[in-house]
Amino acid sequence: MAQHETSRTRALTVRHHGTTPVIKDIPLFAPEEGQILVRIAACGLNFADLLILKGTYQEIPPLPVTLGMELAGRVEALGPGVEGLSVGQRVAVNPGHGGLAERGVFDAAAAVPIPDEMPFEVAAGFMVAYGTSHLALTRRARLRAGERLVVLGAAGGVGLTAVEIGAALGAEVVAVARGADKLAVARQAGAQRLIDSETTDLRAALKEMGGVDVVYDAVGGALSVAALRACRPEGRVLVVGFAGGEVPPIAANHLLVKNVDVIGFYWGGYRHFAPRILSDDLTELFQLFRDGRLSPHIGRTFPLSRAAEALAYLESRKSTGKIVVTMDG
User: Fold this and answer.
1) Which end is more exposed in the chain, N or C (fewer Cβ atoms within 10 Å of the end residue's Cβ)?
2) How far apart are CA 65 and CA 253, in angstroms?
3) pTM for the complete prediction?
4) C-alpha dihedral over 12, 246, 261, 321, to 10 degrees?
5) pLDDT band at 6 (very low <50, low <70, confident <90, very high)
6) If you count DSSP H runs as helices and E runs as strands, how many of each does the chain have, helices first?
7) How many Cα atoms within 13 Å fall on the side-chain side of residue 300?
8) Rounded distance, CA 326 to CA 329, Å?
């Protein structure tokens, strides 16, 4: 059955990989079985959006594509068979793409209700960053209270949440970031030790502390190699991403000698093989927010008309916390 176009909506669209995305009107279809129509209020940006734009992400949607992996807004319409959601309900959605638009149709299974006290701008940038850090540290790295956790890229969108969650779990958090301003943001999020990656020999600094138990690595490159070599016996290295642009070489002999684990973690992959794990984890995270135990940091917001500029700002790595695009300006 052909989809039924009901109207059109403004969206940031990529027609060819590696080119500047443009705002244009695209078709808006009625929600089908198991889908919802959402009026989008805000969309959180992620490093993966840049990889989709370049055509280098592990999941490349067909072109043309609207960027935006996570969003928040209100349900406008329900497709057949949708249960547990209602028209007018405030939701956050993690569809993988499609969030940088005024409205969109998404699978209802990718939507979760958000607390009334959570602003849309916060909800739009909450799921991927907090979900990544919480599930990676608790399920994959098995971080325990009293262990030393080093966070590479500690002032970035996911890094800052790893600092906050690590501190909440009782770890001693070592924040690694570029420059005093970014390190100050990491300290405010709960880091007890600070290392400036621009001026410090990371491996030497971590060795001087006595080594580390868990490495949260969303950066890659030389910093990843240095942190790995500073791991204590039975240390764990979480491979979360490569924001620095370089996939690090891993010396297997170092893993063998120290009994070190290198653990891959891709939060979005759970959508395909264990979605219940994601939904249960997000329910726990939203409750932590309600309890006042999490303080999301929005570094900067842009209107949809300046979404391409927002992506360029993300790529510059000048930001702290999340960059969010809003649809009301």
Assistant:
1) N
2) 43
3) 0.88
4) -40
5) confident
6) 11, 16
7) 14
8) 7
